[in-house]
Amino acid sequence: MQLIPLDSHGAHADDRAAMDALSSVIGSVGDPAFGNSALQALNRWMPLCWWSVYTLYAAAPPVLHAHSSVGDAPRGTSESWRVYRSSLYRRDGSFSAARQAVATGAPALVHWMADELPPEHREAIYSRNGLRERLSIVAAASGGGLLAINLYRHERQAPLGTQALQAAAGLAQPLVACVERHITLRARDGGKLAGLQELTQREREVCERLLKGWTHDGIAADLGLTPATVRTYRDRAFQRIGVRSRHELFARFSQAGA
């Protein structure tokens, strides 16, 4: 495990790839497809396979804000989150050093190789999906929480070297700012779309994208599902909230700012 100090100067202005990636991430802030779009942008700067963004709490289950896979990486982010949130987070000590570091107010980076993690954690998520390592950008969150932006590499990818870790340190603070802004905007949208709160996470994700005008194929690609599965979630959601068509969905939520 490495606890990595941040570059106090932030991302270097002459790092064109980092700036291009950051610009794309900024452009997707607040969008339902943020998880997929932001990872695609970051992957053009630094090859990754997964990312996940969540807030950890001392006395409550973690809250997921975004997750996605890219390229031919295993599409196991949803299942891994289910496993982690069901109980594994209670025994996860991999953020302990970072929690102390962010008490000063600045974000911190913590880098774990899969073989450094406890067997239960490693086997349930890393070995099952062929993950080599995780680089986490960690920042203090409201309510005593800990915001974790987790970047993963697969066994087929080269390990993160010193140069890559330094580059990530340089981009950490603006990336945290983007994620925090995204969380704020999505929370506002959640209030406007209060009628969707009774849905499961997947049903809500499908409806949010339908309200943005997405096709079933587009939603399937973004969420790592088949179009048939998307339609199943759509039908279940429509039944729960009492609408019969996409037109009725728009009619109900268009005035709520969807």
From TrEMBL:
Pfam families the UniProt entry points to: GerE (PF00196)
UniProt-listed GO biological process terms: regulation of DNA-templated transcription
Xref: Gene3D superfamilies: Winged helix-like DNA-binding domain superfamily/Winged helix DNA-binding domain (1.10.10.10)
CDD domains hit by this protein: LuxR_C_like (cd06170)
Record carries keyword Transcription: yes
InterPro entries named among the record's database cross-references: Sig_transdc_resp-reg_C-effctor, Tscrpt_reg_LuxR_C, WH-like_DNA-bd_sf
Keyword DNA-binding: yes
Signal peptide: none
One GO MF term: DNA binding
Alphabetical UniProt keywords: DNA-binding, Transcription, Transcription regulation
Record-annotated HTH luxR-type domain positions: 192-257
Protein name: LuxR family transcriptional regulator
Taxonomic placement: Bacteria, Pseudomonadati, Pseudomonadota, Betaproteobacteria, Burkholderiales
